[in-house]
């Protein structure tokens, strides 16, 4: 087994199936982007929300007890919070 195959197998255990990830993540992102408030967000805010939805997709389709998913969500939220003027 080559290194890439090993990595993908390990990620499948924590992140779930990539096709399931893609479906969930894209549905969540479409919902967010369809809302009026989306146009008011900065690039930083939009990207953080995209990444948070990415992590949510992994939680839903993969291992919900994999702490890294939750830590990543907190990290993206903090990156935005640190850039808020108020």
Describe the protein.
- With 86 residues, the protein is mainly α.
- The chain contains 4 helices and no strands.
- The longest helix has 19 residues, at 43-61.
- The termini are far apart.
- The mean pLDDT is 97.
Question: What is the gist of this entry?
Answer:
This protein has helices at residues 3-15, 18-33, 43-61, 67-81. The protein has four helices and no strands.
Content of β-strand: under 5%
Uncertain parts: none
Helix-strand pattern, N to C? HHHH
- Give a short account of the largest sheet: none
Write down the overall mean pLDDT.
97
The end-to-end distance, rounded to whole angstroms, is 51 Å
Secondary structure elements and their pairing?
Elements: H1 3-15, H2 18-33, H3 43-61, H4 67-81
Keywords:
86 residues; mainly alpha; 4 helices
């Amino acid at each position: 087994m080559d290194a890439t195959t090993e990595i993908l197998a390990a990620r499948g255990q924590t992140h779930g199936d990539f096709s399931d990830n893609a479906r969930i993540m894209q549905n969540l992102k479409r919902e967010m982007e369809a809302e009026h408030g989306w146009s008011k967000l900065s690039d930083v805010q939009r990207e953080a929300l995209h990444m948070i939805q990415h992590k949510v997709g992994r939680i839903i389709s993969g291992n919900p007890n994999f702490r890294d998913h939750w830590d990543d969500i907190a990290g993206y939220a903090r990156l935005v919070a640190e850039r808020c003027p108020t």
